[in-house]
User: Fold these one by one.
Assistant:
Number 1:
Amino acid sequence: MESRIIKPALGVYVALFVLFLYGPFVVLTIISFQQGPDGGPQFPIIEWSTYWYRQIFGLTPPSRIAPLPFGEALIRSLVLALMTMVVSTVLGVMSAQAFRRNFKGSAFVFYLIVLGMMVPGVLTGLGTSLLANNIIGIERHWYTTAFATHVAYTFPFAFLVMLAILNRFDSSVEEAAWSLGVDPWTTFRKVTFPLIFPGVLSAMLFAFTLSLDEFPRTLFASGRDQTLPLAIYGTFSVEIHPNIFAFGVLTTLFSFALLSVYGILMAMSVRRAKKMAMQEDIA
Amino acid sequence: MVDTAVFRLEGVTKRYGDLVALNNATLEVGANEYLSFLGPSGSGKTTLLRVIAGFEAPESGRVHFEGRDITNVPAHERGIGFVFQNFALFPHLTVIQNVGFGLTHGKSGLSAAEVERRAVEMIELVGLSGMEGRGVDQISGGQRQRVALARTLAMKPKLVLLDEPLGALDANLRSRMRNELRAIRERLGVTFLHVTGSETEALAMGDRVVVLDRGTIIQTGTPGEVYDRPASPDVAHFLNRFNLFDGQLAKGSFTGAFGTAPAPRATRADRDVYAVRYDRVKVLPVSAKPEGPALKATFIASEYLGSSIMNFFDAGHGHPIEMEHHLSLGAPDIYEPRQDYLLTWNPEQAIVFGREAV
């Protein structure tokens, strides 16, 4: 009796969930194939075409609609995301490693780190820009002040991921390496790191994607040169054309590609993790 | 012993918060000696090994190894091998990479070819030839144990610490590994410190047995000494070979549930306990009138152990009284369940502890 009500109800719930999750993307995709350059971002589709995709890459004859000014912004965002990914992941691994031992004030430091993802982004961005302008007196750039806010924001995610991974890590393999005369640094490189690599990969993915579409912190902290999310936002204030949607589809595909690479690397290291789990079973 | 001591602990104390894991432990180990550490879980035996290996720093006391004070030397510079209970193999490496790990990444200074030669030699020593290229998830528990051992021995340590290394193996493998450990020790001249929770293993393997309880070393001696003359009721209890009776020692006699028995050579202890080895107990019909101690008890069940039979009797005080019959002494008597019998023994063979003793 119960399942006769609950099961369909849950089915509807999941359907709605999927609709809200992917609905916007579906609409976006459809409109991106609108006819150009006269078609606008509305239904119905006048005529299916790939005009707006070609327009992004400058393959269409000039028209009254300017090409998207994204080239440099995209490169800036990618470089910023890569920088953030590297720094946050390194910091995350190192600080999570430090938390394996109880140290004085560890609880305080923990909340200090996690604060970075709790504080409203606009406040962080505004604060950073005020700090840079009025107190320290340096210029704001995407690769200085904005970079700092991105690290402060993504580092806690990397830290928490690594904390969870290291929490389950059996330190006897490290002790075994030491007892074989291998120094702690080599032990970390040759034993610990390969075993926590799946976690490192997840931390990297978090840091990269969070940085790539970061908006509120970057808005105030990035100075003159805009990152991609800021540049996209800037085009909204003029007039919206389907080229924005075509661009959205392309970036989404890029994200999927990134996820696939992540999935492949993950599958490769899961084999390793399984080995470790089997060894733990014996114990 | 003192002249050839390779290893010495002096008053080592280790605390975890309020818990004293190791209390003023002093110990000397000779070259090529095999020492077993016996004690219940939480007695500090693993802590002792971890302090020796350098994984934990003691609060006080010194650790000496090969004439050097190594108390503050980090683990990777001590040159002391450690075999873990869970083996702690490197799961991302093959058998030969595991065995050669210390030689490759440590300060051995050996060339890759020499490392491989030594690793192959060690793998052969532990009887795993042909498995060099396997992942450690593709071998059995007993084989992993050998890899762990070969990995440690490849470094040619003078001292190897074994932390319940046989605990994870089944009984068959366990006895085979015991033999192999002995053989390896003969061949390589290594000093072994072996922590075990099994009294059989401790007695079988050790040149000397060290008994620990609540962080304190309570007896050190050859297996024979420990077995025949346990230093305290606790030792007798861990050995799992004695029926222990509470009672009272007074004027050279012990009075307990079995009546009063002469106890002329009692050992001083903080409480009065009367210990009778399982294989010293005799079973008589309930109508018998034996001289000396006699305890009326109900037969519960028996267990066949291969070379002997263990009979369990209920004398109405919590844990059963055990009586072991060695089958080499003849066929066992058959006892009726729920029937009463009279248990007796020669009081000369009992071990008595008491506050009164000197």
Note: Chain A is about 75% helix and 0% strand.
Number 2:
Amino acid sequence: MAIWIEEDAKVLVQGITGKQGKFHADKMVEYGTNIVGGCTPGKGGQTVMLQGKDFSVWNTMKEAIEATDADATVIYVPPPFAGGAIIEAADAFDSIKGKGVVVCITEGIPTLDMIKATAFVNEKKGVRLIGPNCPGIITPGENGGAKIGIMPGHIHAKGRIGIVSKSGTLTYEAVAQTMSIGEGQSTCVGIGGDPVNGTGFIDCLEAFENDPQTVAIVMIGEIGGTAEEEAAEWVSKNMTKPVVGFVAGMTAPPGKRMGHAGAIISGGKGTAEEKVSAMEAAGISCANDPSEIGKILLKSLEKAGLR
Amino acid sequence: MNIHEYQGKQLFKSNGLPVQDGIHCKSVDEAKEAYNTLNSEIVAVKSQIHAGGRGKGTLYNPKNGEKVMEGGVKIAFNLDDVEKYSSSILGNKLVTKQTGPSGKIVNNLYIESGCSISHEYYLAILVDRELKMPLIMASTEGGMDIEEVAEKTPEAIHKIHVDLSLGLLESQINTLCTNLKLNNDSSESFSKMIKGLFSLFIEKDCAMIEINPLVRTEDNEMILLDAKVGFDENALFRHPDILELRDLSEEEPTEVRANDTGLSYVKLDGNIGCLVNGAGLAMATMDVIKLYGGEPANFLDVGGGANEEQVKTAFSIILEDPAVKGILVNIFGGIMRCDIIARGVISATQALDLDVPLVVRLVGTNFEEGREILSESDLNIHTAETLAEGAQKIVALIGGGE
């Protein structure tokens, strides 16, 4: 099952002719992702060679989806144009299929552009936006799987742990931690570190709760905003599966942006302490150190009779 | 990116928003001249730094640390007052609730005409991250610490969320005016002002506009007596005019240089430098250093695709901080291969004659080769398999921790 993205999902790449887009499209094909082509305005009709095979390029997302019946798209478009690329993709999926997953990797999109883009996507009920400023989403398979983003594919294995995270490399840590106790992943979702993004923690937790393949979840938060607190409240009311957590930024000073545009404690809000205490109050077992996630997850699985 | 109050007021004025006349000064002589030019009996002498709480701050002599004056914003009734206050402010260190104990040297002054105040309000426009909409916050409790108001009397803060496809609605403005208990005349003035201010927020991609206080005069005019304006750094590419307002002297020079080279760096007060790929992992690395009894000297994210050169720049930036007694490198090789990072670490330590202990933790793509390269070098590099082990090792090596 997994969530939102099946192992054999058909995937388009927006910005496939750019340096980043081409590099990562190649890595996705290498992993086994079912890439069906790409989209770059003005480059329609060209082809791009990935792993020794030619892939078609279209001018617009509408043409690309009509030609390929794609299920998802991944955006590697530079920040000034990424908000527009999200809107184009959401519109095309909505009008042609009534559904689709839009994954935006781009970092540095203006906040107001994201406010407009998320408002547009929210109107298209069958369309889901993941990111921006995120590593993407991966559903590992028996052989390969669907890797839609920039994460290193080889560290993953198909399994029953769902992962949701605001951070990139910290997600990879979480993946490695599940592997250290002999567990694989159902789906890993990077929701991104920007102040305004698409899919949030609660969307992921709800989907994992309803996914028969997933038995437990690792949730990685970081300072800034109140998404973790809201997710904790949702967990306490709705979640039956065990959730293990970690929040980065206990030592972050207030008022300073810590790398991610959204990682800032402002007006005394968004501290790691508040988040961890809300999560623990909701029954989420939190690690103080990411190297302990595996151990805590194992304990939770044992307690739930899953090991 | 933040700007000074005087720059914010110039921006307001050029957009037709109601501000008092004021003059930006960099010396006592300029301040005296400004007083004469403004021709206002009463003026405010305002310290210009990128931090709030100026009025309740304290000025210190940066050389001997002696207290010079209470309050970074003063009301002057004559030329002598202006001279006295401006000479007590300029060149001295202003410590406020927001600057931290190290404070900030005041290099800029704003001399502003006084006005007759009937009531002080609070007004802010920002982005509500959770609802993904611009948010206008207003309160009748102006001139006070708004965080305190939010905590003690949250009902005194009124919030309006603006749907960008509809824009700011008349009905929303009316609601605000009612909530702020404004009469007809002042409602008219408020309505015109809030429309202009909200347009400016959108047009210039602001991250925040905070006016504390917004005042109502005895003539029922609303005046923006304060201006704290911040911009979305991701949107500066389309606002070259705003970028020109950046005052680099208000920022940590190392942070500016790091950002220019594509690194994300924040200086902290500890003594263990860290070099990490990824913002979340970089924060987690700081946290784990602290967990094992050490103190992180910095946040440093070399980014997902760090190369040898960036690793070297990162080392040199960390070592600029004389407090650094040891360095922890924590890399999760994804797209970036650990063997390349290992070579980068070796060439950086050689080029920079590194003389503090170094612990390197490499995991992910090609980590075996990476570790082999490090252990084969004759340099004094310690390796670790987990973040916890790395943190414990570096804390032990610098002789810190409990």
Note: Chain B touches chain A through 55 residues (CB under 8 Å).
